[in-house]
Design a protein that fits this description.
With about 500 residues, this protein is an alpha/beta fold. The protein is built from 19 helices and 24 strands. It is globular, with a radius of gyration of 22 Å.
Length: about 500
């Protein structure tokens, strides 16, 4: 039997899963690490934490499984996108990584737009200048920490730093590189024009591969630390959402998924590149060679619910400890008794600014409509509905762009909640399904590793064999009608508040 490893390098933890060649989980392990917010709107993590988590979890699954190292044919890494990892000439980390949800780079986005041109930037990178993307982070370091920038010799994305640790190779792949704002997305290569206009040295960037291509092999040192073989290949892998697409079978036209993790994403596959000239959604290369995906992003999706739970739900947490269950199980049970519309509370999920459709780093979260009649359960349901309204914003734009979705899959932590899946079905007015495999991005990159190792002929063929639909929610017409009324108010609230967001941000 052949085996494959998928590593999912997330914002809160790294999870490593060992699969057999049929996609069955043999063993898994995860390790958490912190995120640092030294200033309002900033978000950083230590690449060394990702390194340690990857090595520790690989070693754990190899040891616990008892599988022969020679039988583990390939490894793929899925990673949180957009993070900036800077290495010096000795390949040491220069500073903490500025990660995807960081919002400090508004001035640098203006600089990029001015130097490249707004329309030209979208033509080449398929996206407007965004605070979350990597290019603006590079310029921020150059503008604010010139001594660190001067020391920089290598620029990597989070998963590609772990790849370097495992293989000694500087490599990236098209899906993750699409989120750097330095890739020519239609042509799937670095853009010499953008790099020249931004005065970024191309030699600092890694070689670009397609996602299933072999980028290197496990080094002898890492083989000793992890228990893997030096014959284990490491493929390009994918950004987290592109990996989740493969892991849910969204690798053909007409397929889409919604994921509710720390952030939220609505993602549709397309064989033909399609770019929104207004830049409201992102077009990236996907993990299927020669294809792309369109996606909208909600910055604080699952993070909104986690933030509320951690700060206001100590009673749920204490009761869950007594009962030996997950606090979210108790939260879901209470929310199920609250009617559609949360008794007229609307939540705007802009805790960390927003990407789709507003591209506004200054907007912040709001509860609208609170009264003395409301309970904690009302506000919890409002949080889930507010995130869902934001995801509906994303889906509406994909429809406007002509993307036809026949099947919407749900994944991520939020996708496990039947209440949240029903909300999405009602708001999208289409069936929402899950797949029987729950490993998502880790399975996706393991499939890519299987293609690279020659176990499967193509990504599509592997998905047809390994991925099966599980649960399905159909929309409830009366709920869809009510949600459409609330969604109109939800959309109007941002327009009413956007000037006040700027005013609030301007206060010293």
């Amino acid at each position: 039997m052949n085996y494959l490893i998928g590593i999912d390098l997330g914002t809160s933890a790294t999870k490593t899963v060992l699969f057999d060649e049929n996609g069955e989980v043999i063993e898994s392990a995860s390790k958490e690490y912190p995120m640092y917010t030294p200033h309002n709107g900033w978000a950083e993590q230590r690449p060394e934490d990702w390194r340690d988590a990857a090595i520790e979890t690989i070693a754990a699954v190899v040891k616990k499984s008892g599988v022969n190292a020679e039988d583990i044919k390939g490894l793929g890494i899925s990673g949180q996108m957009h993070g900036l990892v800077m290495l010096d000439e000795d390949c040491n980390v220069i500073r903490p990584s500025i990660i995807w949800c960081d919002q400090r780079t508004a001035k640098e986005c203006d600089e990029i737009t001015e130097k490249v041109g707004k329309e030209r930037l979208i033509e080449i990178t398929a996206n407007p200048a965004l605070t979350g993307f990597t290019a603006s982070k590079i310029l921020w370091v150059r503008n604010n920490e010139p001594e660190n920038y001067a020391r920089c010799r290598h620029i990597l994305l989070p998963k590609d730093y772990v790849r370097y640790i495992l293989t000694g190779e500087f490599a990236t792949e098209v899906s993750d590189a699409s989120g750097m704002q330095l890739l020519d997305v239609p042509n799937r290569c670095w853009s010499d024009e953008v790099l020249e206009k931004l005065d970024i040295d191309k030699s600092m960037l890694a070689k670009v591969y397609e996602s299933p291509e072999i980028t290197g092999y496990i080094t002898p040192e890492m083989a000793q630390l992890t228990g893997l073989s030096t014959k284990t290949c490491v493929v390009g892998g994918a950004g987290d959402n592109a990996a989740a697409a493969v892991g849910t079978g969204v690798v053909k036209d007409g397929k889409a998924f919604t994921t509710i993790g720390t952030s939220g994403v609505v993602f549709a596959h397309t064989s033909n590149i399609s770019i929104d000239p207004r830049g409201r959604v992102h077009t990236f290369c996907c993990a299927v060679p020669g294809a792309w995906h369109i996606m909208g992003v909600t910055q604080a999706a699952g993070h909104s619910l986690k933030w509320f739970r951690d700060n206001f739900c100590q009673d749920y947490i204490a009761e869950a400890e007594k009962q030996g269950c997950d606090p979210y199980d108790l939260i879901n049970a209470d929310i199920d008794n609250v009617p559609v519309g949360s008794n007229k509370i609307i939540y705007l999920p802009y805790l960390n600014g927003e990407r789709t459709p507003h591209l506004d780093p200054d907007c912040r979260g709001v509860f609208f409509g609170l009264s003395s009649m409301h309970t904690k359960a009302d506000t919890l349901r409002a949080v889930m509905e507010g995130v869902s309204y934001s995801l509906k914003d994303c889906n509406d734009i994909l429809i406007e762009m002509g993307t036809k979705v026949d099947a919407m899959m749900a994944c991520g932590g939020g996708g496990k909640s039947p209440i949240w899946r029903q909300m999405l079905a009602d708001m999208y007015d289409c069936n929402v399904m899950t797949v029987s495999a729950t490993e998502g991005p880790a399975l996706g990159v393991a499939i890519l590793a299987g293609v690279g190792a020659g176990i499967y002929d193509s990504v599509e063929a592997a998905c047809d064999k390994m991925i099966h639909t599980d649960k399905e929610c159909a929309p409830i017409p009366e709920n869809t009608k009510k949600y459409n009324e609330y969604h109109k108010i939800y959309k109007a609230l941002y327009d009413s508040l956007k000037d006040q967001y700027k005013a609030l941000a301007a206060i010293d």
